[in-house]
Design goal:
By secondary structure, this protein is of the alpha+beta class. The protein contains 21 helices and 18 strands. Strands 9-13-14-3-15-16 form a 6-stranded mixed β-sheet, with helices on both faces. It is globular and about 90 Å long. The two termini are 48 Å apart. 35% of the residues are buried.
Amino acid sequence: MKIILENLGVFKYAEYELADLNIICGENNSGKTYAMYALYGFLDFWRKSQLFDYRSLFNINDAEINKTIMDSGILVIPLAVSIEAINKSLFDACKNFYSGHHISNVLTGQSQYFANTKFTLQITSDDHIKILDKYEKKMQAPNGDQIFQLIKVSGVDELVISILLEDKAKANFYNLHNLINTAIREILFDSILPEVFVACTERTGAVIFNDELDIQRNALQNLSDDILNNPNSLFDAVYKMKYPLPVRRNIDFIRKLKNVIKEESYFAKEYPEVLKFFDDEVVKGKYKLDEKSGIVSYIPRQKSLDNKVAKLTLNEASSSVRALLDLSFYLHYLAKPGQLLVIDEPELNLHPKSQRKIARLLVMLIKIGVKVFVATHSDYIIKELNTLIMLSNHENKQLALEIAEENGYNLALEKLDVKQVKVYISEKKSIIIPDSVKKEKLQTLTMAEIDPFYGIEAKSFDDTINEMNKLQRLIAYGV
């Protein structure tokens, strides 16, 4: 999947492609977060709004659909479509996204700052479009009468829409189109446009100030009836709070933890060793939610001085504990293969030793089927990924296995193929923008080289480290 950014923040033009593990590095204020959040925002709006219209994809209109169903009682939509047709549909969805001021709502900026912004998402030949095997939905009236039925049976790439009412004139076709739209979106696009979860850099504050934010939420609920009856006014009032979309999603997630913990995640059932690694090696303890009060406590693995099990409030716990809370609840209760996990600065408030373990966790996640996208300033994360690449591609497999076991690595879960990783550096570089004839020096995203034996070349970090080493040698030895 290729993402193209135009006139977004510091980027006049930049593009990147998604792999299983995706990393953006670069200096502060170099556009890393914008590049990542733009994709997050599109995927979030894709699932929660009407960016997509199945009628344009299949070149049919309402009149044809209604007439076919009214005449024969059934409509069959073939689901085998070309990449070109899908990309045309995605182009239209992207245009709805950036021309509808959605980007300013995602990034919390005035709409005029994004007046010329374009966001384009393209499917490439490397993307595997997997049509959902089975699907069934029914629509019923308030009185309980079944109106429509949508079915896709296993092994047949067709969606069959049937009318169930004897009196077809009573059917609500407007709601049917929404139902078909959702069905086509899930059947055709879920494998390439994944469900997404975000952990933003403000996650530590979101945990602590959750109560204060609830006060603001209650204030919105007390708005006059006139405003409440005007969706646009209410929408504007909410967005005046000036929280970027990822922050709002983090806040909502923390506020609704009572609902989140109802069922263990796929990981908790199938890969408990991954969660044990996260709890024991990264968090070094566990979180516990009191379902009555909604208060989250942290229980450290290490006992207190009087040999008792400690129980800390989040205010009493370290900043690293607060920074890892949403990731912990996501892994324990929501995570499943096929999702995209977005983390802005996974190293936030973590000691270098813990940063290395976070890198290992990210690789475990992609091995299980969760795609990961991070923006990072951590040389330790990059170097640890290099360790895993070197172990995974060593010419002497037996030696690599022995080194891994001696140092506590599990190559069954931590083997990293360079084809699974894409790393981009946000930097100024001379490039030729499409439809242009001359080179311009612009802030853009440059793909880093990844050697199968030595790993990722993160020039952004290496230059700074070399500078410091040079200066220290000069101070110490005059060399």
